[in-house]
Specification:
This protein is an alpha/beta fold and about 350 residues long. About 40% of the residues lie in helices and about 20% in strands. The strands form 2 sheets. Strands 5-4-1-2-3-6 form a 6-stranded mixed sheet, with helices on both faces. A 5-stranded mixed sheet has the order 9-8-7-10-11, sandwiched between helices. Bound molecules: 5'-O-[(R)-(carboxyoxy)(hydroxy)phosphoryl]adenosine.
């Protein structure tokens, strides 16, 4: 792979539209030149992503976002070598906008297309290079905890395209559980950053919520969410201002339980597979307590940890571009008849 990375004349436009972020990036080789993302505030009032509104917003955003990505990179579309795009998993209406745009632009420019799995993109975000910045990348194989709004998985990464799911959630994702906890407390969407902020001033030992007992390396978060709901219902019945008075401790205790559950299975997987190179990815990897737990486990168990830069943790097109680049080098292109897909395994 080191040899391949020296090729700097390949320009790839990457497009990501799997959920509620419209993102476009330009890569020169494995280096990101631009990474432009338009979020969608329209969902805040509904407490979650509304698929139809997401695809309409993608329709509005896709042209200006791609235009800005090309301008910020200082190149024209005629200089592009290929277009990489998220083919799935995600919301069908959202994916269709990015997939159709990628197909149309690739056809009009007469350049190849590279399809990318969104989840592989999250994991490969660790390999994105930035101009003028030194970066250490994980050696294969490594374990990656992939935690986002839609997924919670422990993945054994053997190469950029050979990935095995070691464990995964059997119900809710970690981010989904945190978002629901925020919603139960009456906060906005997405709740993750709100819970994170509140938790910094709270005591994580104030409340005990029941932890799941799932065999192997799989996760479950729906019981924890219900435990939080029932605890809160009882307390609010006695004092209607309970949440307002105790929001920091509630957030800290819930967050600490989610982090403990995530780290417990990750530790067990690391021990069983004898792998101490441990990466973190997905939107929840922005969480302060989870990052602190990684640092703590690194010290305690000699883990070599890899935590992505904030801008590459949430949905963004640079992570699609890095996978696109490696696939491009292998001539792994996709044809026009490939449809978007909503669910997949790695
Ligand atoms: O990877 P991502 O941007 O989108 C998906 O593909 O799902 O992840 C979004 C998730 C949301 O659940 C959001 O609340 C959570 O990541 N999140 C956080 C934090 N920032 C984002 N969760 C906890 N703490 C944070 N600081």
């Amino acid at each position: 792979m080191a040899e391949m990375n020296e090729n700097k004349d390949i320009y790839i436009l990457a497009i990501e539209s799997s959920c509620d972020d419209t993102s476009a990036a330009v890569m020169r080789g494995d280096t990101v030149l631009s990474n432009v993302t338009a979020g969608q505030a329209v969902h805040e009032q509904y407490g979650g992503v509304v698929p139809e509104l997401a695809s309409r917003a993608h329709e509005l955003n896709i042209v200006p976002v791609v235009d800005a990505a090309l301008k910020n990179a200082g190149i024209t579309k005629e200089q592009l070598s290929a277009i990489a795009f998220t083919r799935g998993p995600g919301l069908m209406g959202s994916l269709l906008v990015g997939v159709s745009f990628a197909k149309g632009l690739a056809a009009s420019l007469g350049i190849p297309m590279v399809e990318v799995n969104h989840l592989q993109g999250h994991i490969m975000a660790h390999f994105i290079k930035e101009e003028g910045a030194e970066k250490s990348v994980p050696e294969f194989p490594f374990l990656c905890l992939m935690v986002s709004g839609g997924n919670s998985q422990i993945v054994k990464v053997n190469s950029y395209k050979d990935m095995e799911i070691v464990g995964q959630t059997i119900d809710d994702a970690a981010g989904e559980a945190i978002d629901k906890c925020a919603k139960i407390m009456g906060f906005g969407y997405p709740g993750g950053p709100i819970i994170d902020r509140l938790a910094r001033n709270g005591d994580p030992k104030t409340y005990t919520f029941s932890k799941p007992h799932i065999p192997g390396f799989d996760y479950s978060f729906s019981g924890l969410k219900t435990s939080f709901l029932y605890t809160l219902r009882k307390l609010v019945a006695e004092d209607e201002n309970y949440v307002e008075k105790n929001k920091e401790n509630l957030a800290a205790s819930f967050e600490a339980t989610v982090v403990a559950v995530l780290m417990d299975k990750l530790y067990k997987a690391s021990k069983a597979l004898k792998i101490k190179r441990i990466a973190l990815s997905g939107g929840v990897s922005a969480n302060t307590a989870l990052r602190a737990a990684y640092a703590d486990f690194a010290k305690r168990y000699g883990w070599e940890i890899f935590i992505p830069k904030f801008g590459f943790t949430t949905d963004n097109a640079a992570m699609i571009g890095i996978v696109g680049y490696y696939k491009f080098l292998e001539g792994d292109f996709c044809s026009m008849d490939k449809p978007a897909f909503t669910r997949t395994v790695l």
